[in-house]
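The freezer alarm interrupted the setup, so I double-checked each line after restarting. Inputs confirmed:
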Amino acid sequence: MKTASRLEKILESGTFAVTSECGPPRGADPQVIREKGELLKGSVDAINVTDNQTSVVRMSSIAACVILKEMGFEPIVQMTTRDRNRIALQSDLLGAAALGMNNLLCLSGDHQSFGDHPTSKNVYDIDSIQLIQTVHRMREEGKFINGEEIKTPPKFFIGAAANPFADPFAIRVPRLAKKAAAGVDFVQTQCIYNMDKFREWMKGIVDRGLHEKVKILAGVTPMKSVGMARYMKKSVPGMDVPDEIIQRLKDAGKGNAAKEGVKMCVEQMQELREMEGVAGVHIMAIEWEEKVPEMVKDAGLLPRPEG
Amino acid sequence: MIIGHRKPLEEILQMVEPFDKIALIGCKGCVAVCAAGGEKEVGILASALRLARKKDGREIEIKEVTLERQCDPEYIEEIEGFVHDYQAVLSIACGVGVQYMAERYKEIPALPGLNTDFMGGSEEQGVWVEKCQGCGNCVLHLTGGICPITRCSKSLLNGPCGGSSGGMCEINPEIACGWQLIVDRLESLGLLEKVYEQIMPYKDWTTSRDGGPRKIVREDMRE
Amino acid sequence: MDYPPNVKIIRIPCTGKVDALYLLKALEDGVDGVYAAGCEEGDCHFLVGNIRAKKRVGYVKSILKDLGINPGRVEMYNMSAADGPRFVQVAREFTARIKALGPSPVKTGKGSEPTEEVPEHAPESEGGEAAKQEERPAGGEPAQPAA
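Predicted 3D structure, all chains:
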């Protein structure tokens, strides 16, 4: 074990892992996080907290993770390189570790033009791969970016995002190889709807043996409605929603689309569980956290291992 | 070249509002090529300002001059003979020119008529695009001749991010994904496999604006 | 051929020669409106002279709007060099438009005017269609007047 992470322990044991995420509130009320956490109790192994997702100002990921930790969860701190330079990033890494955080997901972050402060300046002093390298070097060599020794180095189980559906497809596998070389321990993928394309990507990963170096958690998001499916297809960059998905939701008939969406997600998790190289699922139930326990149960993934 | 475009007329009119006699100074350098601050634009802007003032029953006298360049003290000197007869200089050079005016003629306000945008070139007649950010430490030999600092919206050195879709950037469907271009180019050079998986190291930004205002000294040329 | 006497014609070889500055200068010199009359689109002897003119007229319109001057005071019209009646019709149309707008604020110094462009209502010409036909000149009037 490289870290004190419970997620690492579960993944190392070969258990099919289940993670989910919480979007923190746009306010200072800790109760919002506690309520979201409450919904996920007993159903997941670790919970991501997004870092100003879509560039909208929200409660800090580290702070919300601490609240979840107090509730007994294993939080995954998300950190983007959009808002902090290497000084602030390393400072926050030290702080997060001091507060008992064991997992860190390295991201470049959505461009600020999408968010609620589009007139802001971005940072991008370093990118997500360099952040992986930074966190890895801190853990393995006990050194800052400048090469200086860290007295008590933070030891994070290092995560990253992977989008099997973004372009150019030719470098989607090499890109994961690059993250692996930088020192990533696990990746959580973009929401998968196109299973054929995902399977093709996974094959490329397995062919290169990357799944042995990096634990792959396949991302899923249940569709709530036909409208949501259409929106994701049309308006979310890097999202691949095949027409069959939309058709199936439509065929479910009025009032039944949400139920069908959940059912599809459960089937998908069962399929992913059998897929070679897939180490777990990451459920992103966007503002629909209450559905997670039901889905995990129906997918036959309960009970979760004891911490 | 440096690409700029005229400030909104309303903003320029507000700037010149206190004055009745101004020198409008263009530049025959970059901004003339990008049709923002050359001789022709001096004429059009002067005419527009006069129209605006006449319309309000308050005339303005405008001296129209276009210098060879405004980024060189020797050319700035050319207006010494008359500039003191004017209450303000409205420069439609890039921000460099405006500052040269301000430094040289300390008692005369120097007003910017342009917004200076970027270093770039023409894409087609009437279209200019950004190509370089002047980071002071070029990596084009590593990225297939396409600048990741400039052409990737996030300046990722190890891109692309997950927002690259159909060759376009997530922030605007009209902006090409810089990393798609880099990957395509490396592929056509037969370098993709060799180069792509090498992790580009942390960038040293001291040579960029982050190191403070920059200066190049060539001792061999100094007098 | 009878067209309103207030239209002063400036001949240029092609509307491609029309510069934004010509239009602005005309307004500065006190005209109430100025239009470029070019060949029909696709019929330019220099291929795209009239298309370029149209864009420049559009640019000047945008400047006028920003200045608080009605952009309808400049316009681009297309007509065949042989089509005298069309020339007369445009001259009348534009004159009517400018009359409706009133004297240029540049001349009166009375400040900004509304910058909404009024949609064109072609005024009924006095002799009707037949009279116009009779007015067709044999030799042809200048086809590219610019003011």
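Quick read of the result. The mean pLDDT of chain A is 96.
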